[in-house]
Amino acid sequence: MKIKSIILTLGTMLMLAGCADIKRLKDMEVESVSLENFRPRGLRGATVTLLVEVDNPGVQVSLSEISADVEHSGKVLGKVAVDPFTLQGKTTDTYRLEAELTLAEGVNVFELGKLLDKKALEKMTVDVSADVRIRKGKIRTMKINDLPVKKLIESVK
């Protein structure tokens, strides 16, 4: 199912985006992403469970208020919200992430499926926002705009 590709990509993107701006975490790597569960919610969304393996040689990082807007050629396709989670420091662990995909008005699952070919991915971007806390320090909101989905897919081993 092509929709699984976008879900995997978004999960990876959220993991990478959570670490992109924090220089002390530059060695963190997403080793693998797999889809554990995909439960449609009618034609407007889905609940998704991802298993994400992360190698974090640095400090503990907590992420919350994680959301991403998915766009294709300037049209918003939907929003993804991920439950808060903490990446343990100095470990390689697999994290179970729960996410909710909600399609934008005027977009349905069938239309989304048509957009998920390789050429369509070249025009697909995400805008990500997350609150990040290193250890027990200050919470900092990070935003990354126009992150190309194709590059996210290529970055996962």
Contiguous runs where pLDDT drops below 50 for at least 5 residues: 17-21
Distance linking N and C termini: 21 Å
The amount of helix comes to 10-25%
Please work out how many helical segments DSSP would assign: 4
Question: Any idea what the shape is?
Answer: globular
- CATH class membership: Mainly Beta
Secondary-structure-derived class: alpha+beta
The CATH topology corresponds to Immunoglobulin-like
Q: Report the portion of residues in β strands.
A: over 45%
Largest sheet: number of strands, sense, barrel closure: 8 strands, antiparallel
Structure overview:
With 157 residues, the chain is an alpha+beta fold. The chain has a single domain (2-155), classed as Immunoglobulin-like, CATH 2.60.40. Helices cover 23% and strands 52% of the residues. Strands 1, 2, 3, 4, 5, 6, 7 and 8 form an 8-stranded antiparallel β-sheet that branches. α1 packs across α4 (149-155). Residues 17-21 have low confidence and may be disordered.
Topology, element by element:
Blueprint: H1 2-20, E1 29-41, E2 45-56, E3 61-72, E4 75-82, E5 85-87, E6 91-103, H2 109-114, H3 118-121, E7 124-134, E8 139-148, H4 149-155
Antiparallel strand pairs: 1-2, 2-6, 3-4, 3-5, 3-7, 4-6, 7-8
